[in-house]
Design brief:
Radius of gyration: 16 Å
CATH architecture: Orthogonal Bundle
Mean pLDDT: 95
Number of domains: 1
Pfam family, one: DUF1244
InterPro entries: SMc04008-like_domain, SMc04008-like_sf
Number of strands: 0
Helix content: over 70%
Protein name: SMc04008-like domain-containing protein
Shape: globular
Organism: Halomonas shengliensis
Low-confidence stretches: none
């Protein structure tokens, strides 16, 4: 993508991000813990990254507003409607992933 000008690259990256949000919205059955186990990020991470990007640019964006953008609704509503209790297997897999990260010094 180095052959693209900055504006075009930014537009493509923004479009890809919007598509990622739509994809996550279309797959609410995929729980955050599943994302954390498999990819080491979740919807909350995306929200935090948005807040961080805003801060880097001197823009105001609070975490709850970013969360609402990522989840497509207030987080409390999403949690009530779609979040399931993590199973013992999910909790164990997440703990194992976190332990492996600590061993590699990535925590």
């Amino acid at each position: 993508m180095q052959h693209l000008d900055d504006a075009t690259r930014t537009e493509l990256e923004a479009a890809a991000f919007r598509r990622l949000l739509r994809h996550l919205d279309e797959h609410k059955e995929v729980q955050n813990i599943d994302l954390m186990i498999l990819a080491d990020f979740c919807r909350n991470c995306l929200s935090k990254w948005l807040v961080s990007a805003a801060e880097e640019r001197g823009a105001e964006l609070d975490y709850e507003t970013a969360r609402e953008h990522v989840y497509g609704m207030p987080y409390a509503q999403w949690k009530e409607q779609y979040q399931q209790e993590a199973s013992p297997e999910q909790q164990a897999a997440f703990a194992a992933r976190q332990a492996a990260k600590q061993e590699r010094g990535q925590a």
